What we know:
The complex is a heterotrimer.
Chain A: E1 5-10, E2 13-18, H1 23-29, E3 53-56, E4 63-64, E5 75-77, H2 81-97, E6 104-105, E7 110-111, H3 112-119, E8 144-146, H4 156-161, E9 172-174, E10 181-183, H5 200-204, E11 210-212, H6 213-220, E12 229-235, E13 244-250, E14 253-258, H7 272-276
Parallel strand pairs in A: 1-5
Antiparallel strand pairs in A: 1-2, 3-4, 3-5, 6-7, 8-11, 9-10, 12-13, 13-14
Helix pairs in contact in A: 2-3
Chain B: H1 6-9, H2 11-22, E1 28-30, E2 43-45, H3 52-65, H4 71-77, E3 78-79, H5 81-88, H6 93-100, H7 104-116, E4 121-124, H8 126-129, H9 134-148, E5 157-160, H10 167-172, E6 179-180, E7 184-185, H11 189-199, H12 211-220, E8 225-229, H13 233-236, H14 240-248, E9 252-257, H15 262-265, E10 269-272, H16 276-279, E11 282-285, E12 290-294, H17 307-317, H18 327-337, H19 346-351, E13 355-356, E14 385-386, E15 405-410, E16 434-437, H20 439-445, E17 452-457, E18 460-468, E19 476-480, E20 509-515, H21 516-520
Parallel strand pairs in B: 1-2, 3-14, 4-5, 8-9, 9-10, 15-19, 16-18
Antiparallel strand pairs in B: 6-7, 11-12, 12-13, 15-20, 16-19, 17-18, 17-20
Helix pairs in contact in B: 3-6, 3-7, 3-9, 6-7
Chain C: H1 13-23, E1 31-34, E2 37-39, H2 42-49, H3 52-63, H4 68-78, H5 82-89, E3 106-110, H6 113-116, H7 120-129, E4 133-137, E5 149-152, H8 191-196, H9 201-209, H10 211-221, H11 233-245, E6 251-256, H12 265-272, H13 274-288, E7 292-297, H14 302-317, E8 333-338, H15 348-356, E9 379-382, H16 384-396, H17 398-401, E10 412-419, E11 425-430, H18 435-441, E12 449-454, E13 460-462, H19 473-478, E14 487-492, H20 497-511, H21 517-531, H22 537-553, H23 557-561, H24 564-571
Parallel strand pairs in C: 3-4, 6-7, 6-9, 7-8, 10-14
Antiparallel strand pairs in C: 1-2, 3-5, 10-11, 12-13, 12-14
Bound molecules: flavin mononucleotide, iron/sulfur cluster (3 copies) and FE2/S2 (inorganic) cluster (2 copies).
Amino acid sequence: MNNSSVTITIDGETVEVDVGRTILDGCRSAGVDTPTLCHGDNLTPSNVCRVCVVEVEGSRTLVPSCSRPAEEGMVVATDSERVRHSRKMVLEFLGSAVDVSQARDVDHDSDLSVWSDHYGADPTRYGDQVAKSSAPLKREDDLYVRDYDKCVLCYKCVEACGDDAQHTFAIAVSGRGFDAHISTEFDAALPDSACVYCGNCVAVCPTGALQFTTEFDLRKAADWRPEDQHVARTVCSYCGVGCNLELHVQDNTIVKVTSPSDHDVTSGMLCIKGRFGWQYVQPRF
Amino acid sequence: MWGSNAREAHPIFFHHLMKGLNNGAQMFAVDPRRTSSAKFADVWLGLEVGSDIALANTIGREIIDAGLVNTDFVAHSTAGFEQYKASVEAYTLERGEALTGVPSGAIRELAHSYARADRAQILWTLGITEHHNAVDNVFALCNLALLTGHIGRWGSGLVPLRGQNNVQGGGDMGALPNKLPGFQNVDDRDALGRFADVYGVDLNPVPGKHLTHMFEAMESGELTCAYIVGENPADSEANTSHVRKLLSELDCLIVQDIFLTRTAELADVVLPASVAWAESSGTVTSSERRVQRCHQAVEAPEGARDDIEILADLARRLGYDWGTTSPQELWDELRSLSPPHAGMSWERLEAEGGLQWPCPSTDHPGSPFLHGWLWEDDLAGRAPAPFTAVEAAGPLDRLTDEFPLRLTTGRALDSYNTGVLSGSFNSPIRYGDEIDVHPADAERLGIADGELVRVVSPRGAVDLGVRIQPDLVPGLTFTTFHFPELADSNLLTNDAYDARSGTSEFKAASIRIERIGDCDG
Amino acid sequence: MADLYISSDVASEGEMAAVAVVLGPDDDALVVEHERVVRGGTRRRHARRNLLLPALHALQNHAGWISPGGLNHVCERLQVPPAEAYGVATFYDLFRTTDPGNREAVTHVCVDGACQMSGANELLAELEAGGARVHASPCLGQCERAPATFVQGLAGPDLVPADSLPYTIPQQGDASLRLLRRIGVVDPTDIDSYRHNGGFAALERARELGPTELVQLVTDSGLSGRGGAAFPTGVKWAAVRAEVDTGRSAHVVANADESEPGTFKDRVLIENDPFSLVEALLIAGYATGATHGWIYIRGEYPLATARLEKAVAEARTGGLLGANALGEGHNFDITIRRGAGAYVCGEETALFNSIEGFRGEPRNKPPFPTTHGLFGEPTAINNPETLVNVLHLLTSGISEYRTQGTERSPATKLFCLSGAVLTPGLYEAPFGITLGELLEMAGGVRGDLRAVLMGGAAGSFVDRSFLDMALTLEDTQKRGTTLGSGVVMVFNTEDDIVAAVSRIAEFFRDESCGQCVPCRIGTQRQHEIVGAGVLDAKHIGLIDEMAAAMRDASICGLGHTASNAVQSAIRLGLIGAGK
Lengths: 285, 521, 579
Ligand SMILES: Cc1cc2nc3c(=O)[nH]c(=O)nc-3n(C[C@H](O)[C@H](O)[C@H](O)COP(=O)(O)O)c2cc1C
Ligand code: SF4
Ligand code: SF4
Ligand code: SF4
Ligand code: FES
Ligand code: FES
């Protein structure tokens, strides 16, 4: 141990974690698989989904591993009965209220359903009379489709649009409790809002509630085939900032543009030109 | 931030800047317009178009006058301070206010904040460089950094933001009239000799011409053939009607491009190229001297070929066989000839996600900033950095009774230069090239928001829609130039240019606005 | 800091004038100093953001809703992005963001526990049939005078109809009282009357002791928080003091949000003895070294707010607040902020967000308020009853203070008795009094005792087998219940207890901030199951499973406690299988 790291115990294993890093970081270096949903390595933890909770000795309640900094001597359990139960319930609650068919654990690059199966979540237990989120599909422009029936309210889009990156604040959480939802002011259409179409909200959305039209249309046509896609890393062709792009290509056609979240220049964020300006390579209209 | 609207022109750079603001950094925005970037500033100083040197010199004088000069740094690392001091003597706060329009209190505040800051940067873009005296403008800002020592250290410095993804790389690779790759001079016999050895041919030691000089040479009949690769001067240069005439009068015009641009339409031969960053592989170099790799993502359409292939083929027809020309082979050749790139192996570029030159050896981590040598005891054996005294000179287009309004130009977030590329997608936030007019001017001229008006400069006239814009100062108008097919804004701009940089004065034209109803009737 | 995009809707003259009253006539988030010089920036915006909530109050009061034009105007003046401001406006129950279509005051009728059992729903229906604009409200903090109403004014003050009646507490005039001693004796609108009744003696004593000894005294007294969590007050103050000693600026906050169903003690205290809170907050500021005092009072307390505003103004005039108020170099002033109808804003970190002009969403802890509280600065936040305890501690000394109560629960406690007792009202009694004795103090149970809700909606039900339970922190904990904020809501056999439990489940559903999944969806599912009325073993198992996750994985106390009452009702057989 030294001044720049702390030693903690995770499931009986001793792990060194850099000062300021989280329990989740410790889990990762210890090779302990931990589900996440609202976490993104390029965003401030909102710690709201609670699927990553762990048990920390001495703490009355469970602790969100994604946001809690590791402290010297912490004793962490990630697979106790309490942990498994809460994770199961969180996944079950979400499944009972939201369309999670496209939800992903982005950190693991896996479907969320992998975890639901793992913990035995059964959203049907609440019956079919229960309230679900019901919002009309929003297709207000040629670039985005917003389908808030899939929204788990992870706050990631709000953070990306707000002070974690874009500082445009076009969208925020409005309403309260079960009725809380993502909205512009007075639910104005996106083109009539502050939105600048950087696509950063779409890029961080883990559920498919926000999608690029290109992806949405292919999915709708049942022609979205990730297994047939390859990703080429290149550099944006516009201004001199040098943002790295990942071009997702299916059938020799660019279907989506993202940026690596661990890249120094972009932290995964792009502007409208980098995000959508590729279309001159293959004009779509 | 001086003469730059990075919020729209360099958005992801601006993300980094906003992180700084969130951490407590102070921001001053110097710009004739209260741009979307300026709206993030603690203080916006709306100087008169083209009064940048007057402002910089006033700031310099105030720093000297208030005893805020970093005297150790000036003594150790710079030369010519006394001349500089004498040159700015006349720029009192009062005179600065008179020349720039900015109240002296705000100028003083900027001078003091800049000089007193632990770390400070001056960032600029085309607001500084698209002027007839662009190089002087840059010197005026450099002088401020030298006065205060805000250079060559982490977090400080002078930051010109490059407008295109590889304009830095182009220069680094010798795409300048007087340079070889790695900024070696064309007339440096030793350097030229090394290139000649590797290339196996004799090389011409006479510097070439700037773009703007080339147009002059066309005009005088000296230049009769042009081979244009990936540029669209028929739309992008100032005073476009003149440019188009010159291009169409050439004996031979060859254009290599991915589009049939307006320039290509004038060409005798068009060589269709593939899209460099998506249909072929290679490197580009960003504004911060970061060399990064591009990877081919998709196959180019039938007939479009990689630029390298086209050039190699052309060479072959001309009797030179370059053999295989893979991007990696060319890169390794460059590394052998350009010392700042020597350490950037193809594998490192891939593994480390890019490297910033100078990177002279494979164990060198690259250089996040330049000019650290200014802080070394022996200045790394170099000569001290010189101050360059410069005098204010307003825009060439003077305001007259005939042309009483100032027009300046700029870029919009979702669009890019002449719009050839950015026009390909349907941006929900796009508005066309309109002319922004201050409410007071609009009222005086009796024009309404959305009205179509005729904008007349000494060089041409264009019809544009009006957008009433309170973020301007009275007397100033603004337009973008992204939609030449709709409205040729560059017909209005001044093609007078800086002899040293070759950049035209896009930023300052004088105009008048006519109501279309009035002139028709 | 943001790109402000303001739609074309504009505010009416009236809206602008109403906003100007709270924001002042000039804009200082953005100052146009000259045609060519504009000042703005991050710091200015941050400094003004906390005026968002008062500005929204002004709009709501002026027009009966927050119109797009009004919101735009506030956003421009404070440089707040409209989407964020809308998110804030839609968070609160007292704000409307759709045009009500008419211009009338709204009568809020409490439909929680005590009022529910006293015909609140009938009253609501009756008023509505009479053409009034009505709104079913959670507990209005007037449970002793159920069914309670509150009239949200339009372009005029809010009012509570019952406030026009003379108010007495059952123990009025009892000289042995500590916290309620002045009630009914002192003129709550007059600082001199307060002084004549022993006011400001504690402050004087505090300044004789000096901050260090004062903090020690509070620690030694064993005083613990009366807001519900019973955290030792001295420990909190000492922690803030330590931060101030490192040079940080700090805050003290009085948490008068009082929205726990069944609770009305802080209202009675503030309405009738407002200067005591001002004095106590001054003492807290002195002890901790804080320079800013805040009182966050729930929006449905117009009388308490008015009295407090007057008290603060008089204290300021009298030189008790302002520059050097707490000694050379120790400035101290008090700002009052009104809530706008959100139970969760009583949670301390949600309260900070609410004051700061953000949605009242609780923050994850740690970090704790003592290091990262209001505006990210060290903050000591206490319930008014907690604070007022310090007055008696200082004037009578620690040994006298500890003569009542027990070792772990020293001194006295305020109990809010409501429901089926003969004399509902606020009572002060020493810790250790039994539940049975307390009910007797209130004249005994009206009818046959069925159950008592202890500690409010976040507390739990007990039955007659608990009558011998001593009301201390330790005994209630041992018996699996809580004192919470002092709620003792009594139900007799006539009451529809199933409806009461269902209403509690609904209360949590309505009041969850919606941030975290276990609480947002868990409270919804719990209400669906409990509200359906049929509870078989499978349902009960599910409720227990949900409760475990809410208790373990929610962010804040609301989620942690949302199942307490429901589970206790099942255990006692008040609802479900046993019923
Ligand atoms: C949902 C919720 C609501 C709360 N409401 C109040 C309240 O209205 N008044 C109060 O003093 N404490 C309330 N609290 C407790 C506060 O978070 C905090 O513990 C208290 O203000 C600290 O003061 P004390 O130590 O003097 O009790 C509430 C807690 C939760 C979780
Ligand atoms: S839209 Fe997507 S990113 Fe935004 S809150 Fe919902 S799930 Fe999260
Ligand atoms: S994504 Fe935007 S900021 Fe980044 S390089 Fe491209 S144009 Fe520039
Ligand atoms: S427990 Fe409930 S009220 Fe508390 S933060 Fe979570 S959702 Fe909000
Ligand atoms: S991933 Fe940690 S709370 Fe959501
Ligand atoms: S006011 Fe109705 S229960 Fe409290």
